[in-house]
Write a structure and sequence with these properties.
116 residues; mainly beta; four-stranded antiparallel β-sheet
């Protein structure tokens, strides 16, 4: 199994930056893809960014040019650097991992609040 623990959320002002972290443990060797989703109040969960083992990335149009996803394999940690934050980025951010080819695991979520 794989376990994920997110950290780094908080309250910031519009234009500020924030970095989220997601520490993975367990069967991390079997992880192929990791990424970040978010869910704003009253909205469905949406993909923010994903990073495959081959380092290919995928970003939501709304965050392209502002957010950067990266992974430190030595620390088994996924990051999401968020710059130029906007109030519409306010949401609970969830880390996920796809492993063993058919399993998905989610973190508990971390709240990001951006005030105008």
């Amino acid at each position: 199994q794989v376990q994920l623990v997110e950290s780094g959320g908080g309250l910031v002002q519009a234009g500020d930056s924030l970095r989220l972290s997601c520490a993975a443990s367990g069967d991390t060797i079997y992880i192929s893809t990791m990424g970040w989703y978010r869910q704003a109040p009253g909205k469905e969960r949406e993909l923010v960014a994903a990073l495959a083992r081959g380092e290919s990335t995928n970003y939501a149009d709304s965050v392209k040019g502002r957010f950067t996803i990266s992974r430190d394999n030595a620390k088994n940690t996924l990051y999401l650097q968020m710059n130029s934050l906007k109030p519409e980025d306010t949401a609970v951010y969830y880390c996920y991992a796809h492993y063993r080819g058919y399993l998905d695991v989610w973190g508990q979520g971390t709240l990001v609040t951006v005030s105008s």
